[in-house]
């Protein structure tokens, strides 16, 4: 009896990987273009972003404050906004080299696409659906009993090692051929994801990731 081959995974980051931008920033910008009265919070977010750049505030603090923009929105309104944003992202910001590589591998039937992103799940899930991901993992956001967004994160920020924690919670990785699996990301913070697979791919890497990628024979997509 022929032994059934294990499937392989394509672990795919989104921001500055599948798309050539930070999609949460893009979502905020798009949302504010139709909700101008909320722009009053923008100077505060820009200050926090500057503090984040120098390490004075955490990514989680910045993200929670950014969520204040959407507080009170219901799921349907956010989904409609996400749909429009996705149209823009795929037409204007898609990294076609990454997209074509992922779709080509998935078309062989040997791979499952798993989207793993630190950005909010209320729009990342739609992106995962559009590219045929079998699983989409992102930072979950809390909603109240009436289905309206609260400016708080449900659980942990889906970043770094937490991506692997979430992945193991949802999948039995022993069922997959990890040595022949791929991980696509632009950031050294995704080192746990790179190290999980046998075929890490550094996408438009910065200096730190490029040095690590060259030293460890990663595939590099510029």
Automatic annotation (TrEMBL):
Pfam families: HAD (PF12710). It comes from Candidatus Wallbacteria bacterium GWC2_49_35. The keyword Metal-binding applies. This is HAD family hydrolase. One of its GO terms (molecular function) is metal ion binding. It comes from the Bacteria. Keywords: Hydrolase, Magnesium, Membrane, Metal-binding, Transmembrane, Transmembrane helix. The keyword Magnesium applies. The chain crosses the membrane at residues 39-62.
């Amino acid at each position: 009896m022929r032994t059934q081959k294990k499937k392989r995974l394509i672990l795919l980051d989104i921001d500055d990987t599948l798309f050539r931008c930070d999609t949460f920033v893009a979502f905020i910008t798009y949302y504010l273009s139709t909700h101008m009265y909320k722009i009053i919070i923008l100077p505060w977010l820009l200050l926090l972003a500057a503090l984040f750049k120098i390490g004075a505030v955490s990514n989680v603090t910045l993200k929670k404050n950014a969520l204040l923009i959407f507080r009170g929105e219901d799921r349907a309104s956010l989904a409609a906004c996400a749909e429009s944003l996705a149209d823009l992202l795929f037409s204007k910001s898609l990294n076609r080299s990454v997209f074509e590589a992922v779709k080509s591998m998935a078309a062989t039937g040997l791979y499952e696409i798993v989207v793993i992103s630190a950005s909010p799940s209320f729009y990342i899930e739609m992106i995962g659906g559009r590219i045929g991901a079998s699983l989409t993992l992102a930072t979950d956001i809390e909603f109240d009993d009436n289905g309206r967004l609260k400016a708080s994160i449900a659980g942990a920020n889906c970043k770094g090692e937490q991506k692997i924690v979430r992945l193991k919670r949802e999948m039995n990785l022993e069922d997959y051929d990890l040595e022949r699996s791929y991980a696509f990301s632009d950031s050294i913070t995704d080192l746990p994801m790179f190290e999980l697979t046998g075929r890490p791919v550094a996408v438009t890497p910065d200096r730190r990731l490029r040095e690590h990628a060259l030293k460890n024979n990663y595939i590099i997509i510029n």
